[in-house]
Amino acid sequence: MQEYNGPVLKVEDIRKSYGDNQVLNGVSFHVNLGDTKVIIGPSGTGKSTLLRCINHLDIPDSGQIFLNGEEVHGSKKNISTYRRQIGFVFQDFNLFDHLTASGNVMLGPIRVLHMSKKEARELAYTELARVGLQGKEDLYPAQLSGGQQQRVSIARTLAMNPRLILFDEPTSALDPELIGEVLEVMRDLALSGMTMVVVTHEMGFARSVANEIIFMENGKILEQGPPQKIFYKPELERTQRFMKKISELYGDEDSR
Question: In the chain, what are the domain boundaries?
Fold first, then answer.
């Protein structure tokens, strides 16, 4: 069987409407192995819906999505297999309050990957250490800060050994002083070669680790390119105005 050397993810002409509201209007892009793609744009422009369509949490009305060259089909069996290969880190952590940090991380490997409890616990400890939470394994979500909870959710995703990870504004629910610890973990993942698609307003992160920045508005990709181009020499006046405004609102310091 010939080895596949194409994009990890390929999105072609994805469209999605809710009633009369067209949220995605023909979005196409691809993600190569080891890429970090950062998607930016005004609120309500379809960024989160795009991620949800990629993971089939929402079903696109039309268009095609390919993972490692294989088109995603509609059967429950195939979708389950597909989702297993794509991690998703949400805004709101989505941890189980009755489980410890390690318990949250162990759940997927036990139920989906059919690991033994011993194997899953060892994996959970490894992934929690990877996100800087060694010593916190037996604490419950209520005993952790928001930044620590989000890092548990990242560890939970890593434990499934995904082909790529989708991040949907992972720092938006955090207090400002906690944002940096999550971005540091994400930077480390990007530098280690993890394939990532990130929706964020954190411009310092985007500028320092993105291979490509995708600017969306009104359900379409208006402009895309490397950070140097989008930050300093965008082609469209609309991109220029957005970048100026987003920098004023959120700042663009890498140290944040």
Answer: 86-161
